[in-house]
Amino acid sequence: MDTNFSKDDIAFRDEVRKFFDDEFDSTLAKNLGDGHGDNYKESIIAWQKKLYKKGWIAPNWPKEFGGTGWTDTQKFIYESERGLAGVPDVLPFGLKMVGPVIYTFGTQEQKDRFLPKILSSDHWWCQGYSEPGSGSDLAGLQTKAEDMGDHYLVNGQKVWTSYADKADWIFCLVRTDTSVKHEGISFLLIDMETEGVDPRPIKLISGSSPFCETFLTDVKVPKENLVGELNKGWTIAKRLLEHERAMISGMNMGAGEASLGGMEELAKEVFGELDGMIAHPTLRDTVTKHKMDEEAFNLTLRRTGELAKAGHGIGAEASIFKFYGSEMNKRRFEILLELLGTNALTTEGEGHDQDVMDISPQWLRSKGNSIEGGTTEVQLNIIAKRVLDLPEGGQA
Question: Is the same domain home to 384 and 263?
Answer without folding.
Answer: yes
